[in-house]
Amino acid sequence: GQNIDQPTEMTATEGAIVQINCTYQTSGFNGLFWYQQHAGEAPTFLSYNVLDGLEEKGRFSSFLSRSKGYSYLLLKELQMKDSASYLCAVRDNTGFQKLVFGTGTRLLVSP
Amino acid sequence: GAVVSQHPSRVICKSGTSVKIECRSLDFQATTMFWYRQFPKQSLMLMATSNEGSKATYEQGVEKDKFLINHASLTLSTLTVTSAHPEDSSFYICSARKSRSPGETEAFFGQGTRLTVV
Fold first, then answer.
1. What DSSP line would sit under A64-83, residue for residue?
2. Chain A residues within 8 A of B100 when measuring between CB atoms
């Protein structure tokens, strides 16, 4: 089965740094994705990790530890527009390569 | 880039009627497409995997006779919500993969369809 957990909500201040955690227990693993989703819109791709370690892309970084079933998304220099839901998703290693999403974290950035 | 177009973006239908949602990959061929449902303030729930030329694979708890999926070509998958009820009101999103290659990273998402059943 699949179990992917994230904190439900987080708040942070403009200009600050926030870390959103994701823990997973899945029957198969072939990569972990982070997506951003604004209300009423489709998710947009942020990052992808398949090997342990940190992937940095501008203000966003994502970390993966496969042995611990753990990932985090780090957002630096927060901006008001970063207020959104952040979704962690695990891709399985079956023929379909399904993407299964976590519970999602709603981030509110305040002035 | 890779573009996935989903239509319609919004639809309101009467209870008991059927609604068809289309998902098209515009500039690539997609052997596999995925259909998700999202309720307010919740995450995406995978409903089914759509495979070109074969029957869809449904997730546990999803009624295959209610949510009909057809993947007739490499660029088009359709989801038909049959005999819709108000509890089917939700945001439905499709995504498409270019190939089954493990090296391919992203799944590309459509814009989503907001279904309201009255």
1. EETTTTEEEEEE-S--GGG-
2. 95, 97
Kindly report, residue by residue over A19-74, the tens digit of the pLDDT: 999 999 988 888 999 999 998 888 998 999 999 999 998 999 999 999 999 999 99
Dump strand ranges (E) for chain A: 2-5, 9-13, 18-26, 32-37, 44-49, 53-57, 60-65, 70-75, 84-91, 99-101, 105-110
Tokens linked to A90: 């695990």
On whether the CB atoms of residues B21 and B36 are closer than 8 A, the answer is no
Min Cα distance B46 → chain A (Å) is 7
Q: What is the mean pLDDT of residues B24-46?
A: 90
What is the C-alpha to C-alpha distance for residues B4 and B26, in angstroms, rounded to an integer? Answer: 6
Place of tokens 């989703």: A37
Half-sphere exposure of residue A78: CA atoms within 13 angstroms, side-chain side: 23
**Distance between alpha carbon B58 and the CA centroid of its chain, in Å?**
12
Tell me the two tokens of residue B84: 């819709």
